Amino acid sequence: MYDPKPEHKFTFGLWTVGNIGRDPFGEPVRAPLSPPGIVHLLAELGAWGVNFHDNDLVPIDATPAERDRIVADFKKALDDTGLVVPMATTNLFTDPVFRDGAFTSNDPKVRAYALQKTMNAMDLGAELGAKIYVFWGGREGTETDAGKNPLDAGKWFREALNFLCEYNIDQGYDYKFALEPKPNEPRGDIYLPTVGSMLGFIATLDHPRMVGVNPEVAHEHMAGLNFMHAVAQAWDAGKLFHIDLNDQKFGRYDQDFRFGAESIKSAFYLVKFLEDVGYAGSRHFDAHAYRSADLEDVKAFARGCMRTYLILKEKAEQFNADIEIQNLLADIKANDGSMDQFLGVYSKEKVTALKAHSFDRAAMGQRGQPYEQLDQLLIELLLGIR
Asked: What CATH number should be reported for the domain whose range is 6-321?
């Protein structure tokens, strides 16, 4: 009942199930998996697709011959398993050259190299069938504002995206670009830290229709924000091009827990929203197993991400079908139509009528809402007793 199917569009990055368990305080605890090996592992678990940074697949110092061999082996694994590559991205944060950013580096040589590296990675993604291209600016920020002007940084970032949009058009790749916000880590402060700030920035680009967002649960939770609200804003703007699913304790470092591992209620609201609006894109799990996991537990982690999503999808359907819950919602949203003459599209006639209308403010202020009842019914539904 909760087994993943291709129509669920569950995807993982090479860097997720391939995570070797290194952290700032400890060495790796798991052996590396080859990209073809990861493809076969994901196919075994029922995933639909696999995503990658350029250097997850091809090492940054690979020769052209090595690059071609690696890509050929990866393509064979895709062909053998039927997995697809819906999204690709560029690693602009690991190599020391990006220590002060990529597109926002103070060094113009670094900014030019970042463009070159991204175009090559776009070529690779297109070769493998990707149609979404994500930009996470992991080093695009500062520890001290003494050395970098945020107006300069914004200008350089805008110029880079405009350049790459034109390259996308010129090559006929038909990518949709998705910008991924994060408030901090690894930089002290990262530019454009939230979904809302990214949406504002996109409006300043030369090709705003080509560019949307890739919101991530953990990144908004790091800032103490409501992720579902951010996703709703992106959806309303027509900019929800991709999404990263994981979990996170509020206000902590980027933990990338298994989806639903920490904030099950928030995860429910998110799944319900995505399913209710008919989001048709990938459900991408940008997470990794606990450092304590061995390979079998890594598989349990990946299965758990998909299984939890499907369980919450079923819970959302139950919520929508629950008569008591829906009756409460109908009472909460009751509308006798008497205010239709005042609301909606502006007109001078509505202004005149609204200014003349007498409201019973005291009576309106006496009306409560049964949100406690509604929330308890939700809790009981999630706990499995409804």
From this structure: 3.20.20.150
d(CA 11, CA 181): 20
Ramachandran angles phi, psi of 10, nearest 5°: -85, 130
How far, in Å, CA of 16 to CA of 298, rounded? 9
Q: Of 56, 244, 247, 286, which residue is the catalytic one?
A: 56
Query: Domain boundaries in the chain?
Result: 6-321, 323-382
- The alpha carbon of 359 is separated from its chain's Cα centroid by a whole number of angstroms, namely 44
Catalytic residue flag (residue 56): yes
123 is catalytic: no
Query: What's the pTM value of the predicted model, to 2 decimals?
Result: 0.97
Per-residue confidence (pLDDT) for residue 299, from 0 to 100: 98
Q: How far apart are the first and last CA of the chain?
A: 19
Question: How much of the chain is in helix, strand and coil states, percent to nearest 5?
Answer: 50, 10, 40
Nearest partner of 187 among 108, 121, 105, judged by Cα: 105
- Quick one: DSSP state of residue 379? H
The active-site residue out of 53, 221, 242, 284 is: 53
Task: Name residue 51's beta-bridge partners.
Answer: 13
pLDDT at 1 over 90: no
CA distance 54 to 102: 15
What does the pLDDT look like over 228-247, one tens digit per residue?
999 999 999 999 999 999 99
Where is 176: in which H helix or E strand? strand 176-180
